[in-house]
Amino acid sequence: MMKDPVKLREKKLQSRLESLMRIARTDSGRRTSVLRALARLCRRNGRVGQARRVLDHLLHQDPLDLQALLEMIRLQLDCGETRKALALCHSLQRGLPGMEILHSLEVRTLEMMGNRPRLIQGLQAYLGRFPERPRVRFRLATCLEACSRPAEALEQYESLLEGGYQLSRVHHRMAGIQYRTGNLKPALAHLLEAERLEPGRARVREGIARIHYAEGDYLAARDAALKLLEVTPGSEDAHRLMARSAFGAGDYERAADSYEFILERNPDATAERRELAEALYFSGDHRDAATEFRKVLKMEPKNGVAHFRLAEILHEAHFGDQAEWHYKAARELMPDALSPLQRLGDLALKSHKHREALTHFLRWMMLDPANPGVHLGLGKAYRMLREVSSARRHLQRAEELGIPDTDVFHERALLERSCGRSTLALAYLESALSITSNSRLRALLTHEVREIHRDRTRRRAEAEAEASRSRQVWKKLA
Q1: Cα 440 to the chain's mean position, in Å?
Q2: Which stretches in the chain have pLDDT values below 50?
């Protein structure tokens, strides 16, 4: 049967204490040193009352027993008596100003008290006496950071770099200060140096990725996030950073993989669900994107962007009625957005709802009167409604605002043809053909040219036939 390790440890401690007390009683020459050891052993094992009694006895025998006084300070700190410990430290420092252990105990006391300004003063006094103490200087630098004194903290870190102390860690701390003060390039330089000195630290790699992302260098951010995932493959934060960096870099498939990793563990993460849907949409996986956008709309029914994206997918898949419903929802939820109005106008034109199309385009024009696309849409709608002067005015305005010439020329050709001005229509079509290389558009324009020539030939034949009939009638009359 195994014995209880706690009881065994307690038994050994008791045996050791009894041995020390026996020596103290029998060996007067060693009594003081043995009592000090006894006090220290009691303190370290939580027997503070016994430790205090031994120290009081020692100090009663010799009030200037330095080792007993130092042990008393440690005991007071263990008991949370920070004010007493600090007072005793200062009392001893006045008589022994060059004793390093007193500075160390003072710093420990001030840390326990949580008084950072006084702690900074204590650390500075420590370094004033003992400047070659890098751990103390590092602690001073971190305190200065915490007290929002970045310039002084950087100065201390620079001193540590000159002394070669924990270079990677110091570079990392300096990067944090530079990042928080908006100096991204120096921060990145420090992080890259920290990575070079000690490769594989997750926080350093995360910092590199975040700075690249903040600078808009999404490719570099994605590559840095990949390195971060090598050391933290199961971290949601690392995958989130990977996903957003990859999305910004246009690597939508990799972004989707990381978003899926997060959602497997946290299916109710609305932001990640929305961003996954966007990644799938831009990667061309519209079927899965539609599924995700529907899930987003269950979580956020008033998400106008989700309605619009889903409408785009449905429109492309020729579900016109469903697409129109979501476009209208997007328009209601995003009244200042132009794209839903444009799509609704285009859908109405295709459905021959010309008045409705005109309404959508006019609303669009109220929001963005200098957009050439809205004037092109109005030109089309007015042409369909046979309001020629309005159509011509808006098409002219679209051309002035810089709409691609082929679009305007084609629409002007259709307008002039509908007005019976085939010569002018042909001129516009030929102008469009001369500047476009799009094969599908060229085929359409060529078809329009053939239709105009066919109409001209037909009308000419009809005119000749009518003239021939008229001549025959006149002959009979004559």
Answers
A1: 41
A2: 1
Two structure tokens written together for 118: 């006084």
d(CA 205, CA 9): 44
Q: Which long-range contacts (C-beta less than 8 Å, at least 24 apart) are formed by 215-223?
A: 215/184, 215/188, 216/248, 218/245, 218/246, 218/247, 218/248, 218/249, 218/250, 219/249, 221/245, 221/248, 221/249, 222/246, 222/248, 222/249, 222/251, 222/254
pTM recorded for the entire structure? 0.74
b/e map 314-338, b = 16+ CB within 10 Å = bbeeeeeeebbebbbbbbebbeebb
Q: Which of 367, 368, 364, 366 has the alpha carbon at shortest distance from 380?
A: 364
Within 10 A of 354 (CB to CB), how many other CB atoms are there? 18
Q: What residues have CB less than 8 Å from 270, skipping those under 6 apart? A: 296, 299, 300
Tokens of 152: 């002084």
Residue type, 440: R
How many other C-beta atoms lie within 10 A of the C-beta of residue 46? 11
How big is the chain, counted in residues?
478
- Nearest by Cα to 228 from 236, 218, 186: 236
Residues 176, 186: Cα–Cα separation, whole Å: 10
Distance CA 157, CA 63 (A): 42
The DSSP call for residue 147 is: T
Summarised one tens digit per residue, pLDDT across range 298-338 is 999 999 999 999 999 999 999 989 999 999 999 999 999 99
Question: Which residues have a Cβ under 8 Å from the Cβ of 327 and sit 6 or more positions away?
Answer: 307, 308, 311, 315, 340, 343, 344, 347
* Contact status, residue 458 vs residue 438, Cβ threshold 8 Å: no
